[in-house]
Amino acid sequence: MQNNLSESDDGRESGRSSLPWCSVSIDWPYEMVSAEVEVVGRKEPNVLEWVIVRILDEFADSPPAIAEATEELGVAATVFLAEPLKALLEDGALETKDPDQPASLSNCRITPGGRAILKGKPMEGAVERHGLRIYFDAVTGEHLASDKMSGTATPTYPVICAEELSERITHLGLDRARELARVQQEPFAGHDCLIRSVKVQCDQGRHIWLPVQLSLEIGRDGTLRPSLPGARPDQFKWFEKRDLDIPAIERLRTMSVGVFSDGPDQAARSFKDWWAGVRQLVSPFSIVPQVQRAIGVASNELIIHAAWLGVAEIQESMVQVAERGVGCTVIGTPASPQNDWPDIGGNVKVIATGDLTDAPMPVAVIADGFQAMSMDRIDVHTPGGREIELRVASIARTGRMEQLRQQMLQAAAVAG
What we know:
Elements: E1 18-43, H1 47-58, H2 66-73, H3 79-91, E2 94-96, E3 108-110, H4 112-118, E4 123-137, E5 143-144, H5 174-183, E6 193-200, E7 206-219, E8 224-227, H6 233-242, H7 247-257, H8 271-277, E9 278-282, H9 287-296, E10 301-305, H10 312-323, E11 327-331, E12 348-351, E13 363-367, E14 371-381, E15 387-396, H11 398-415
Parallel strand pairs: 10-11, 11-12
Antiparallel strand pairs: 1-4, 1-6, 1-7, 2-3, 4-5, 7-8, 9-15, 10-13, 13-14, 14-15
Helix pairs in contact: 9-10
C-alpha cells in the first residue's frame, strides 16, 4: 500500500481493470495420521546358507557333523559353515531341537521359513515395529510426502469450518500403508520388507492448520477476484468450487465493519459511482493506521465523520493535530462526549447531525480539502455470481475529494 495520500491521479488509472483489496494468510487444514506397522524383513540366502538347508533336508534323520560336512564340501574351515548356520537360526529358517544344547547340524531342523528357501523364495526375518507418520490434506484428501509439518491447532482465518471436515482416519489397509510408506521413502519400506499389520494410533493423530496466502482484488465489473499463489492444483480446484464461500471472507467482512464500535447505518453505494471515485483500496488490516496517516498530514483543516472517533487511536490522532492548531470539524455524534476528551481548546467543532435521510453523509476523513479517505458499503459478486456485501475503505481520487467534503458540509448545514 502506498503511503503518500496526496499522490496525483494518473491517467492510466482510467483503464484499470481491478484494484487490490487485501492479502491474508488463510488457514488450510491437514490431518496427521500416526500408525504403528509390523514389518518382516526378507532376504535372499547365500550359497552356504542354501547348502546347509539342503543338507538338513536330505539328511533329516541323521545330519552329519559340521566337520564332516566341511570336509565333504571341500570348505577350508568349519567356521565357514558355523557362521551361516548361526545366521539361519537368527533369521528363523532353522530352529534347535534342544535349546539347551549347542547349535549343530544334528540339533537343528528346518522351519516353514526354511522350506521357502528350498522353493527359491526369500527368507523372512524377525518381526520389527516401526512408527509411520502420514499427512493428508483434510480438504482434498491428497497425501503429502512429508516427515514433519508445523502448523497451529486453532485457525484464525479458516478456509473451511472445522465442523465440515471429514471424520478422522482410523484405519489404513496394508496395501495403502505399503504404498504411502514407499512414497515417503521410509527406511523399512524397501522391496525386501513385508508389512504384516498396521494400527492407526488415533490418540496421537490430529488436525493442524497451515497458512496459504489469499489475495483479493475488486474488478471494475464488481467481481471480487481471489488468487492463491503457491497453492497446489487440487487446492485451487476445490477453492474455485467454493466460490469464496469460506469463513475467512466473513472474518474480513466483520473486520471492516468492526472498525466502528457503533457504526452508522450506510446505504449501499452505486458500484459504478463508487469505482469512479476510488484511487486505492485500503486493506481491512490497515484501516486504522491509514486514517491516522490521513489525519496526521492535515495542516489547516480536518473534517472527520464522528464514527471514526470511536477508535481510540484515531481520536488520539485528531487531538494531536488539534493541539497543533489545525481546525477540526467533527460531523455526527461521537461515541464519547466531547467533555471526556483532553483539553484541546476551541480547535475542535462538533456538529451533531443525528439520523439524516435527506442528506446522506459519507463516512470520511478529509485533510485540507485535497486528501480524503472514506468507508463505503458496496455490493460485489463472486466469480460464480454470488452477491456479497462489503464495507470497503478507500483513498479517494481528486474529483471525489471535493464531493466528499461538500456532502459532509451539506449534512452539517442541514443539522444546523
